[in-house]
Amino acid sequence: VQLVESGGGLVQPGGSLRLSCVASGLTFSTYGMNWYRQAPGQERELAASISSASNYIDYLDSVKGRFTISRDNAKNTVYLQMNSLKFEETDVYYCNARRLAENYWGKGTLVTVSS
Questions:
Q1: Is 43 left (phi over 0), alpha (psi -120 to 50) or beta?
Q2: Cβ-count burial 31-56 (b if 16+ within 10 Å, e if not)
């Protein structure tokens, strides 16, 4: 199983980025997908979740209204649209695939919010 994130980079405060995660080696449409983020020295936190059929979506309170998670099961891809980014959201963002006891992680993509 491989999860490969892309789309990270440097963005100014208030700016936007769109992260992508392409999955391979699994039946993507049967997995719930999540985006986590982690700052240095901090615990990894769940930012957004989407169920296999996109009928359940949830967000960390602090990103509600600014982040949008979506998926394209035909492309084995999950997205995270991030708007109005804040300095404190400089983190490594990780893609996660989960189904019952199975749990897979990508290597992460760095998002730096700085002026």
A1: beta
A2: bbbbbbbeeeeeeeeebbbbebeeee
pLDDT per position as a tens digit, 42-79: 999 999 999 999 999 999 999 999 999 999 999 999 99
Q: Are strands 77-82 and 102-105 parallel, antiparallel or unpaired?
A: unpaired
The span from the CA of 2 to the CA of 23, in Å, is: 6
Q: How distant is the alpha carbon of residue 14 from its chain centre?
A: 18
CA atoms of 40 and 45, how far apart (whole Å): 12
Nearest in space to 52 (alpha carbons), one of 21, 95, 97: 97
Residue type present at position 115: S
User: How many angstroms separate the CA atoms of 45 and 53, rounded?
Assistant: 23
> Residue 97, SS3?
strand
Residue 102 structure tokens: 């199975």
**Closest Cα to residue 94, out of 52, 57, 39, 27?**
39
